[in-house]
Automatic annotation (TrEMBL):
The keyword Oxidoreductase applies. Belongs to the Gfo/Idh/MocA family. Keywords: Oxidoreductase. It comes from Microlunatus capsulatus. This is Dehydrogenase. InterPro entries: Gfo/Idh/MocA-like_OxRdtase_N, Gfo/Idh/MocA_domain, GFO_IDH_MocA-like_dom, NAD(P)-bd_dom_sf.
Length: 334
């Protein structure tokens, strides 16, 4: 029996990321995970049995119709986010959508428009913005600790042997470096510099037509700039640097979920600021959604929908320049 006032969660997509997120629900006051769904009843049941989820559904539509689910976490491949988010919004469910938000810019715009029209809470699951160390870095920037931020650098790369059957290399599943890794560097730059005025991308494609690696230059009319790297071809440090007119903040590897940041100020010794995450690091975004839904809010102030759209447009422009063509999956609810 749920406690009155509890926000009840369901999961769409019992994959790797959902398995990582579920253990962090124990750190979220007022949240209860009640159900998981997959297009395979056996897969959903195995997930529920392994992780102690009370109920398993063999279809997404079945979970979305459940009266005891207030918010759904969409953890399927990128091209399935669009249709599932629209269906969840239509069902009146709040939504946490795993990054990257959708496979296309048009898809993201449609989901955001639907959420705002229905006044339903929707947020992209960009856990980096909720990491305590990144929150500390943002507070330093807002307090003027490094002056005016003029440049951001960030990289994220893994060595992934090419396999055309692997989701990471399959265009039908939204494969490629940018949607899996590039979203982190772009969102980080957007968080500290705002939305760029122009995007320049260079990289290479696999034989399946997705991006294997990409370098992005984000330009701003006042001369500010972000230089960003993402690759599936080799491991990179995964570091970031926020550079201002009077100092800089170093975000050590892996910058998208750091335990500390280092403040460098002109004329002062470096200052290490340690802020470890709770649990596996996913609890912070789960708290944001749970508290927002309980309070009746329709957007997050930390990860607002306008920021999600800005990031999606940068990724879309970069993919266009690289010659990568992705599409949403309209059949996921079939």
């Amino acid at each position: 029996m749920s406690t009155p006032g509890t926000v009840r969660w369901g999961i769409l997509g019992p994959g790797r990321i959902a398995r990582a997120v579920v253990p962090d629900f124990v750190h979220v006051d007022g949240a209860e995970l009640v159900a998981v769904a997959s297009r395979s009843a056996e897969r959903a049941q195995a997930f529920a049995d392994d992780l102690g989820v009370p109920r398993a559904h063999g279809s997404y539509a079945e979970l979305l119709a459940a009266d005891d689910v207030d918010v759904v976490y969409i953890a399927t491949p990128h091209p399935q986010h669009h249709a599932l988010a629209l269906a969840a919004i239509a069902a009146g469910k709040a939504v946490l959508v795993e990054k990257t938000f959708t496979a296309t810019t048009a898809g993201a715009e449609e989901v955001v428009a639907a959420a705002r029209a229905a006044r339903v809470f929707v947020m992209e699951a960009m856990w980096t913005r909720f990491q305590p160390a990144v929150v500390a870095a943002r507070a330093l920037v807002d307090d003027g600790a490094i002056g005016e931020v003029r440049q951001v650098q960030a990289d994220l790369g893994v060595e992934r042997p090419f396999d055309p059957a692997d989701r990471m290399f399959d265009p039908a599943q939204g494969g490629g470096a940018l949607l899996d890794l590039g979203v982190y560097v772009v969102s980080f730059a957007q968080y500290f510099l705002g939305t760029p005025d122009r995007v320049v991308a260079h990289g290479s494609l696999t034989s399946t037509g997705v991006d294997a690696e990409a370098g992005l230059l984000l330009g701003y009319d006042d001369g500010r700039v972000a230089t960003l790297l993402a690759t599936l071809r080799h491991h990179t440090p995964g570091a970031a640097r926020i550079q201002g007119t009077t100092g800089w903040i170093e975000v050590p590897p892996r910058f998208h979920h750091p335990g500390s940041v280092v403040l460098h100020r002109r004329g002062a010794e470096p200052e290490v600021i340690t802020r470890p995450a709770t649990g596996g690091g996913y609890a912070h975004e789960l708290v944001e959604v749970t508290e927002a839904v309980a309070a009746g809010r329709t957007e997050s102030a930390v990860m607002p929908l306008d920021d999600t759209l800005a990031v999606q447009r940068v990724l879309g422009e970069a993919l266009d320049q690289l010659g990568v063509h992705l599409a949403e999956d309209p059949e996921v609810l079939a």
